[in-house]
Amino acid sequence: MQIIADLHIHSKHSRATSYKLSIDNLEKYGRMKGLNLMGTGDFQHPLHRKEIDEKLKEDDKGILRT
User: Fold this and answer.
1) What's the CA gap between 5 and 3, in Å, rounded?
2) Which residue of 4, 25, 41, 59 has the lowest C-beta tally within 10 Å?
3) Sorted alphabetically, which PANTHER family does this protein's record hold (predicted)?
4) Residue 34 CA from chain centroid, whole number
5) What tens digit of pLDDT does each residue of 11-30 get?
6) Phi, psi of 5 (to 5 degrees)
7) Residues 48-57 as b or e (16 or more Cβ within 10 Å = b)
8) CA terminus-to-terminus distance, the chain
């Protein structure tokens, strides 16, 4: 499997970003761009962490998936 990744994506919880940058929209538009792996440093923000916990599940390789 070829990995096409962006490992520096910000969420709606970063400064000066769109309120539309939800997990659902990041996945939707990431897939449209051909991404199959994304990473964010915003996981440290309590509200983004909550959204991650609600929307994503960890697979057997330790990767969070929708």
Assistant:
1) 6
2) 59
3) PHOSPHOHYDROLASE, PHP FAMILY, PHOSPHOTRANSFERASE
4) 14
5) 999 999 999 999 999 999 99
6) -130, 155
7) beebbeeeee
8) 18
Could you tell me how many residues make up the chain? 66
Q: What pLDDT score does 41 carry?
A: 85
Helix H or strand E segment including 64: strand 64-65
Q: What are phi and psi of 32, to 5 degrees?
A: -60, -30
- The C-alpha atoms of residue 61 and residue 14 are separated, in whole angstroms, by 28
DSSP 16-59: T--TT--HHHHHHHHHHTT-SEE--SGGGSHHHHHHHHHH-EE-
